[in-house]
Specification:
Number of helices: 6
Low-confidence stretches: none
Distance between the termini: 38 Å
Strand order of the largest sheet: 1-2
Structural class: mainly alpha
Helix content: 55-70%
């Protein structure tokens, strides 16, 4: 039954993205929202700056639709397990939404580097508060358990590094 929910989330996000992305590209063309090539860029032609605006809403819609269907299914609410019924789930999505909104603002009007960095750190801290941090390296370099006071700053560093 869990494969059905994965399929629902996957198919609904694809369908929604197929509906939204072409309209976003029309808006980019209408308002000349293009990123032009320069010496720092790898692309050679002008590309739309707001092409990725649809990704997070499509993913959030798919997740919430799937959770809603799961709760409607008899017995689904009891079997859903740990994650969607607690504050960690919401903190994780708040961190992602904050990054998304900063990215949209940066695409449309620009955002100073220190504001971007601050938002990245705050988002990373929200994700860490959700309970996701590096606490085990599974034997890499002979290390198995990672103390929280090392894992939390390491996770924030890795997330900010990965975002950049």
């Amino acid at each position: 039954m869990s494969y059905l929910y994965v399929c629902i989330a996957f198919i609904s996000s694809i369908i929604l993205a197929m509906l939204v992305i072409p309209r976003i590209l029309v808006i980019a063309a209408k308002h000349s929202l293009y990123d032009l090539s320069d010496e720092r860029k790898t692309h050679k032609e002008a590309i739309p700056r707001i092409g990725g605006v649809s990704f997070i809403p499509c993913i959030f819609f798919a997740i919430m639709l799937t959770l809603g269907i799961f709760y409607l299914y008899p017995g689904g609410a009891e079997n859903i397990g740990y994650y969607p019924n607690n504050s960690e789930f919401y903190l994780f999505f708040c961190g992602l939404m904050l990054l998304y909104l900063a990215g949209v603002k940066d695409d449309l009007v620009g955002l100073r580097y220190f504001h971007k960095f601050g938002i990245q750190v705050i988002s990373s801290l929200l994700i860490v508060l959700s309970g996701l941090y590096i606490n085990n390296s599974y034997g890499l370099f002979g290390i198995y358990q990672v103390a929280w006071w090392i894992g939390i700053p390491l996770t924030v560093f890795v997330l900010v590094f990965g975002i950049n």
